[in-house]
Write a structure and sequence with these properties.
alpha/beta, Rossmann fold, Arc Repressor Mutant, subunit A, 3 domains, 5-stranded parallel beta sheet, 4-stranded parallel beta sheet, 18% strand, elongated
């Protein structure tokens, strides 16, 4: 699984710098470490909308975590599965604050510790413990597979969760004869400011953003649930299926999107840095359009149009009109087709107004031509 919001921070290869994202708008739904994502996108020129779809409950308010920690100490597990560095550190810190730190340390020393990837291993070793196995592909299924390979019948296995229970993997342990305990060092709760989330939902549903980033599966559920409360879940999902790109940090985060018929972009490595690079690459490759018109090159980057040395930012309606015309440069688009393409044009008068607004917004109004009794075309 991928982290609470994914354990991040990688320095494998340099990320593109400069304003390569100028003109694009990106929605960030994460709580933990959202500043890292926002800063990376803003430094590259993007406009960012941020509203946590879920947030992590304050540890000092989490009596369930302390109760579960006591249960683990009392049962003295044979095996402890550590899934995330952040979760393990938070567990140890909460135990220390509750006066259970030494008892938990002794419990961990007496158990076989299996870790899900190098970051979890680093956290375990930093706390003074040794691990007995690692899942190098960083998947929970592989981690549980290591535990099962050693045999678990009649043994006690404690699993550190991360955000929500992976029922399938826990059932694998139980079916093999293990007694399973779970500890959730962080729990997802509703965001403290739901009005911000409502505004983000509206922006995505209206296709006013180019990409929405997700760093946890619960954030997907939180966003869709918030949209449902506003009666907008259908249009939100439609937008994410076509028009707005969803970006997920890893396959577990991607799963609820795929269940909704949404195909997200996912980095090869399940890290925040890789997610940032994947979004940058997607937008710079797929989000930039250039057409050679009869008047010169026309370049569109998100909502920003560059022509003849001038740069202008288009509102949603004019941008949708221009996108339709650029989809088939030089071809005459009928009024009926344009009415279907434009989000707010309900009749021919509204269409004429949209064309007028586009012409007024462009550096040269002659880029859009009227073809009498037929429709409109880009002047190529």
């Amino acid at each position: 699984m991928t982290g609470p919001d994914a354990d991040a921070g990688e320095s494998a290869r340099p990320e593109p710098s400069g304003p390569v994202l100028a003109g694009f708008r990106i929605a960030v739904t994460s709580d933990r470490r959202s500043d890292d994502l926002i800063d990376a996108f803003v430094r590259r020129g993007a406009e960012v909308l941020h509203a946590p779809a879920v947030r992590i409950a304050p540890v000092e308010q989490d009596a369930i975590l302390i109760s579960d920690t006591r249960a683990v100490i009392e049962c003295r597990p044979d095996v402890v599965v550590v899934t995330t560095a952040y979760g393990f550190r938070r567990w140890v810190e909460a135990a220390d604050a509750a006066g259970l730190g030494e008892d938990l340390a002794r419990t961990l020393d007496a158990a076989r510790i299996i870790v899900r990837g190098p970051k979890a291993r680093g956290a375990v070793r930093a706390a003074g413990h040794d691990d007995d196995g690692i899942a190098h592909d960083e998947r929970t299924a592989s981690t549980i597979g290591l535990v099962l390979d050693a045999g678990v019948r009649g043994k006690r296995v404690a699993v550190q969760l991360h955000g929500h229970e992976d029922v399938e993997q826990l059932e694998r342990l139980r079916s093999a004869g293990a007694s399973v305990l779970t500890v959730a060092p962080y729990r997802w709760v509703r965001p403290s400011d739901e009005s911000r989330l409502g505004r983000l939902v509206a922006a995505v549903a209206a296709r006013e953003v180019d990409v929405v980033t997700f760093t946890s599966a619960p954030a997907v559920d939180g966003l869709v649930s918030a949209a449902a409360q506003l009666g907008m879940d259908g249009v939100l999902v439609d937008a994410l299926r076509c028009g707005v790109t969803a970006a997920a940090v890893g396959p577990v985060t991607a799963a609820p999107l795929l269940d909704l018929g949404i195909t997200p972009i996912v980095p090869e490595r399940f890290r925040m840095g890789a997610l940032i690079r994947t979004v940058i690459e997607h937008l710079t490759v797929n989000g930039v359009e250039q057409v050679e018109t009869a008047l010169g090159p026309l370049v569109v980057r998100g909502r920003v149009v560059t022509f003849g040395g001038q740069t202008v930012t288009l509102a949603r309606g004019p941008r949708a009109m221009l996108a339709a015309l650029m989809s088939d440069p030089g071809a005459v688009l009928s009024r009926e087709r344009l009415l279907d393409e434009l989000p707010d044009a309900e009749n021919e008068h509204a269409l004429d107004m949209a064309v007028s607004r586009l012409r007024s917004a462009l550096p040269d109004r002659h880029l859009v031509q009227t073809v009498v009794r037929r429709g409109y075309r880009l002047n190529v």
